[in-house]
Amino acid sequence: MPDFAPLPSGRPVPPGRGLHRFAVAVAASTVFLIFAGGLVTSTDSGLSVPDWPTTYGWNMFTFPLSKWVGGIKFEHSHRLIASAVGLLTVVLALWLARREPRVWVRRLGYAALGAVVAQGLLGGLTVLLFLPPAVSVAHACLAQTFFCLVVSLAVVTSPRWRKSEPVPAGAAGRLAAWTAAAVFLQLLAGAVMRHTKAGLAIPDFPLAFGHLVPPMTSFPVAIHFVHRAGALVVSVLVAVTFVSSWQSRGRGLRGVSLLLAGLVLLQVALGAWTVLSRRDVVVTTLHVVVGALVLATSLVLALASRRRATARANESGSGMPEAGEARVLRFVAPASGVRAAQK
Known about the structure:
The chain is an all-alpha fold. It has 12 helices and 2 strands.
């Protein structure tokens, strides 16, 4: 059985391209899942369905549409989308096991499968244990980890990645890796802030109670300020990474770094808007989604910096492999509704 299927035009898809496209689809669906999960938290709908894995005693997949009212529609939709993403991840892991010759890529697929299973169990525990902050924060952070895994799979299964060769990490790559780590810590602080109800612990912006540094009178105030300070650190790292990437010779690095800079500017604006709008549901949820896209983009930049086009790739006209890796984010970002903001 050949690893390709004909296009509508009759031209065959090169081997491996179908797998790459499916991995991109899984990454895009994960964006919708993160958005759905953000809506659950933003609308305080986490216990709108008090049982798990059933929904008010019904099989989750047969729960009547007429009963999707109030917060139930957010929580139940989140469960259904999570189930769909889980199924897609199973298919992706099996496809990799059958068609992917690289052992480490297959293992990456197994890791993604393990992460999505653990994520489902954590989601159930958050309901059964009545939303304990520690479990809810772990659930949020594992979602970001899973997203990074499937985005990585989308990158490394691309034809251009296969045609390129590894190179030592340059300054741009090292900075991108540090940026990705900083963004993950920032998302961790944001998850703690959201799940401890500290989103408006500091009600003004850009100052904090009229000061640059507020009085640390409580944990909610402290974690909220840590999140704001983290945003400043991430912004500086992204700026330095952007400059370093533009000084490199890779066109793909420049493109991804430009996207990263645009997403960070959007994220800062959404963070400010979240406070000034008193945690508007849509704004707050988009803030969560764009944060995930910032993490994924910095990861793609770090990966892209470690590859170089071979002579064969250049002769075929495919260009630098980084451009192919940047294409992953062009598939993922529109799913969050932020494509217009990047222009």
